[in-house]
Amino acid sequence: MRKILLIPILLFAFIIKAQAQDDAIQRFFSKYMDDDRFSRVYISPKMMQMAGGFLKSNAGTDKDSEDLGVLIQKVKGIRILSSDEVDGMTFYKEAMGTLTKNKYEDLMIVEDKGSSLKFMVREEGGLVKELMMISGEKGDFTLLSMLGSFTYEDLNLLAEKTDIPGMDMYGKGSKGPKGVK
What we know:
Blueprint: H1 2-31, E1 39-43, H2 45-57, H3 63-72, E2 75-83, H4 88-98, E3 105-112, E4 115-124, E5 127-137, E6 140-150, H5 152-161, H6 167-171
Antiparallel strand pairs: 1-2, 2-6, 3-4, 4-5, 5-6
Helix pairs in contact: 2-3
């Protein structure tokens, strides 16, 4: 009888652990949601769907605009938390401490005297489900989380062809599979 009860309990614990990562990022955002030192941006899946639909319908014969419209509709949401009024390295370390490192793979790391920038991805089934950017330096902190279902080529195109916040910094790194040429 104990063995029969143990299996559902272990399954439940595994599900809770898998969901804990999303909760950690959400808790980090929520923790500073009412802090006036931070700017907060949330772009909903519906807004991305509308923007992509607009691009596709107004593309006419422009294949790039139509492709970009399809690509933007793959974005399921963007969350940004930023401040230029805090010690960014302190918040960078706190944000990094909330992540379950084995769920994310590093794409690009830039560390300089007193500043750090990290791009990470969370993959499932060969597709990027989340692109995360965390940067911190004296007087500046930014955390960006973009959810969706992307290939690396999709992310490269988003970096090149859009003004989605944070993608300009992604575009400055190496491109190609896993972000390396």
